Amino acid sequence: MLNACDIAFLCLPDAAAAEAVSLIENDTTAVIDTSTAHRTAEGWAYGFPELKGQRELISASKRVANTGCHASGFIALVAPLVQAGIISKDALLSCFSLTGYSGGGKKMIAEYEGEGRDPLLDAPRQYGISQSHKHLPEMKKMCGLDTAPVFSPIVAPYYAGMEVTVPLHKAQLNGTVKDIAQIYSGYYTNGIVAFSPAADESGFWSANRFEGKDSMEITVSGNEDRILLTSRFDNLGKGASGAAIQNMNILLGVDEKTSLVL
Q: Which residues lie across from 17 on neighbouring strands?
């Protein structure tokens, strides 16, 4: 079946994804791999079309590695600023990311939605505490950083939605908050990822604001001394399936917004 199809979506563990690709014996089947097996591999296009040059690489490729959910939010915030010289490639960054429990897959969904669940699941839980999270290699590579960020992912007791924050001190920037806003406004123009002024939700920002959507919101807030870069999106949308459909649309040569919920 892999050799008979135009485009194959791989939703497999890493080893199985690599094995599946090895079974393709032609040069016509395109693959969109949602595992982490090929996200930093040579010969694979990285499936975040909004990055400079990536849409063209995806369009011309038969091998596309879909993005990681946390990674999408971090890369969307940091990569344009590194490319513009606002953040140095040798910067030592940190990243705080909230996600709904659907990001953990079927097993985690069953744990959170099961009767008599563990009371510890009623509170947000930090994980990836060994600093070896599987998204770190793509976060480092696609942003052009010398060092991966200190990464603090949090899974919380809600179904879907993600909020990724990168905090910065003024000394880490070669520019201002206004410069960052201008860069984001000019960089994201396709309407799927978009810059907007910091949302006013009575002093709060909800991580499930974009649940059910395939879009992503980018904001910059704080003050001139301490700055927050924040992206909000659905971990199942722009962080997963929505991104895969967008990549498929590009491979097929149709409007990349086709069938997306924006």
A: none
